[in-house]
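Hey team,

Filing this mostly as a record. A colleague (T.K.) asked me to run one chain through the structure pipeline before their review meeting, and I want the input and output archived in the tracker in case anyone asks later how it was produced. No errors, nothing strange. Just documentation.

Input sequence:
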Amino acid sequence: MSEEALKQVLTIGEAKNLYAKFGLSLYSDDVDLAELVRHSDWSTGLTNSNYLHALALTDVMFRETKTSLAMLTGPECEYFLECLSKTFEAALERVKAASGAARLIMIGDNDASRRDRLRGKYGNQLQVAFGMPSQPNILADHYLICDARMVRHEEPHDKILDTDDAGKIKARVFFNSPIMAKVLGARFDSLWNLLSS
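Output structure:
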């Protein structure tokens, strides 16, 4: 491989394409580690290295989700969920079968067409609320909580584009952290109650 090729940065668009083509097979070691962590008392999170890795770790979370899902996110989540559509939709089916709740709060988007697409695609399987930040210049963290024990906690970032460096997305995934899930879950519930009232 040439020195120039080694200097090239993986973009978010390239990460999406790679994941569409290869899926979890790119990170089989992480799937094994997730299995080990999930069945232990170890609550230390795994840090994703880039957008591609974030897709893989979130895919593992969705594959394991059975009873509940709560996601606080920004407008770009629509494209992230599109990359994980099979496992996300399967998670929604399992949550519905367990009479659990699947809720998504999207912050920072006033685009009615995006709201309509999300509601149209997931119908009654996913409850969706939308809100605008009171201080639009302040970036907020995003998180995903599944089954009151798995958490993906993403650092704040500005709007992402397919041409951005895939390393722009930084998050930690905790496969067995009921305490963190409870703390973030309480924040989520407060915001949910505010936006859905």
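Quick notes for T.K.: The longest strand covers residues 101-107. The mean pLDDT is 83.
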